[in-house]
TrEMBL record:
Annotated protein name in UniProt: methylmalonate-semialdehyde dehydrogenase (CoA acylating)
This protein's UniProt keywords: NAD, Oxidoreductase
Species whose genome carries this gene: Sinobacterium norvegicum
Record bears the keyword NAD: yes
Domain of life: Bacteria
EC annotation from Swiss-Prot or TrEMBL: 1.2.1.27
Keyword Oxidoreductase: yes
One Gene Ontology MF term: oxidoreductase activity
Alphabetized InterPro entries for the sequence: Ald_DH/histidinol_DH, Ald_DH_C, Ald_DH_CS_CYS, Ald_DH_N, Aldehyde_DH_dom, MeMal-semiAld_DH
Uppermost EC category: oxidoreductase
Amino acid sequence: MTTTIGHYINGQHHASSGTARSDVFNPATGDVTSQVSLATAADCELAIATATAASTGWAATTPLNRSRVLFKFKALLEKHADELAAMITREHGKVFSDAMGELTRGIEVVEFACGIPHLQKGEHSSDVGRGVDSYSLMQPLGVVAGITPFNFPAMVPMWMFPVAIACGNSFVLKPSERDPSVAIRIAELLTEAGLPDGVFTVLNGDKFAVDTLIQHPDISAVSFVGSTPIAQYIYEQAAKYGKRAQALGGAKNHMVVMPDADIDGTVNALMGAAYGSAGERCMAISVAVAVGDEAADALIAKLTPKVKALRVGNGLGNDVEMEMGPLVTKTHLDKVTGYVDQGVAEGATLVVDGRGVETTDGSNGFFIGGCLFDNVKPGMRLYQEEIFGPVLAVVRVDTLEDAIALINSHEYANGTAIFTRDGGAARQYANRIHVGMVGINVPIPVPMAFHSFGGWKRSIFGPLNMHGQDGVRFYTRMKTVTARWPENLQAEFTMPTMK
Ligand code: NAD
């Protein structure tokens, strides 16, 4: 008997009104551990109706009191961190320490959102005209929806809802069907922290739930993170139904390795960035662009033994801590394996082959070991497409100029890094590269919560990034009030100008 994961509506668990379910696996064992309900029209309607009913009272709650709920929520997240991280590992597969890291990055957004009384102050100008003042209000939108991917089941929802809720909105989260448990536990903790019923809802489901949310007239805005084709679809649908959207998509992140880089440090940075979380990160480095054959040869020589020695296994409950867990599903494992097969067929040199890996601890789930390719060419599918697995491609170029031209011609532009000791080269790279997030000797340059996260090009649709000031702007709408308290108002027939 597997358990069924339902929804969380109006401050309580809610069993689905239908029978459609999707299997949830423990990817380290390959076993089905539970089933998640897929929302019906009635579930969606109830979720949106209760969120709408809660939104007026929550919007009228003072920012200070909204912030106090978030302070309590942060304390609860910290108290239950081990439990939450274990939940992530059991359904996603990433190793426990990595799951703790994910949670920490999410908690940082809660900390940012606790500052909402300051962040939502708006602007004020005295005397924009004689006796006239002007001020702006940043008012909540009402009910907003978030649709999130499998690879960060806690952190990505936390990029969204702490800011949305802090701004006075109700939030309906549609998590990934692959790892839905942690979202439900987060909802329980929000209730425990004192969040009024209906302000945070978890609606589990698939495309039907997503489409219903986007089309519903009571949903004002949609935040999405996932693959590029779906991000584009969400953005187009949101535009069609007249609501604002931010839709973050896929990635192919390059790290440029200059000939003067500290090669040992660079290799260590690459190991974590390419193979951490089995490459299932939108900021994973999947391409190393070596400038000059000397740098490329040194990279390959030093990476090879390390990739072969990766400890691969169950991310929970080992005596020895693993460095890499399994992929999320068998379907995804087959897809990643297919890319490795294709890379070989296309003529790239497979230096380390992780297919059919024997795990360090004998685990037998959806595993692939680290894969390393040399001599990858820009025309290959291996180079062009997002693989989302532990596969690192080394591309050789002659100059920094070539590296910039190569990276600027890729369709994805989420993150990138340059490793060098040359400040001038790093500065030139940061200024000229057409990518949203840039690291200088930092392999995974994920901006902190008080900055904003987002790529360029086909890695994002919409003008506003996640969290930071952009998050506050996304979840509020500006109203500008121009006021005077006249003593003797005269009729004016010309266009009003300030005198
Ligand atoms: P996905 O696009 O398959 O799913 C994301 C969400 O969309 C899920 O909630 C899913 O239920 C829903 N969905 C899937 N198909 C849909 C459809 N046809 N119509 C409507 N909704 C649909 O993505 P995933 O496999 O869960 O996550 C991996 C992807 O997410 C990768 O491409 C990765 O790069 C990307 N990602 C991007 C960022 C970023 O910040 N840019 C962050 C994390 C993940």
